[in-house]
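Severity: low
Component: inverse-folding endpoint
Summary: output formatting inconsistent between runs
Steps to reproduce: submit the following structure tokens with default settings.
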């Protein structure tokens, strides 16, 4: 019986492909489950960070800062409401460089003083690694 070792060349040929897939997934954008975030910790961190600079005037900017969004990510309000106890609720669409991040919403509840009470939804970070600054230019030939 003759044994053939055909798997060797195939494995060598597939190794670069597998490595490139693994490298790409290492720098992929990350989704953060906001309900799992420590709201008290976020409030403390935000209060410390804004002590000298001041608090952002708009709720969307304030919430984006509190959640640690990068400078290219923003929140745009979809709806808001106020409960009888003064709790304000906001539903946001996340945007990155003016492009909506589809499929994910950020839901924030805050007390009358602007402190976060609860968070729901998911935010997406690390998008700068995924989306180039400019679209590639196609040469006119």
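Observed output (run 2 of 3):
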């Amino acid at each position: 019986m003759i044994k053939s070792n055909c798997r060797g060349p195939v494995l060598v040929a597939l190794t670069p492909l597998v490595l490139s897939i693994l490298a790409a997934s290492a720098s992929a954008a990350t989704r953060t489950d906001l309900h799992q975030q420590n709201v008290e910790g976020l409030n403390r961190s935000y209060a410390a960070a804004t002590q000298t600079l001041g608090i952002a005037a708009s709720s969307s900017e304030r919430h984006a800062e509190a959640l640690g969004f990068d400078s290219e990510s923003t929140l745009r309000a979809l709806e808001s409401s106020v409960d009888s106890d003064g709790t304000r609720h906001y539903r946001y669409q996340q945007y990155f460089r003016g492009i909506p991040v589809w499929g994910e919403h950020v839901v924030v509840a805050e007390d009358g003083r602007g402190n976060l009470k609860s968070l729901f939804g998911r935010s997406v970070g690390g998008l700068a690694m995924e989306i180039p600054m400019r679209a590639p230019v196609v040469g006119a030939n």
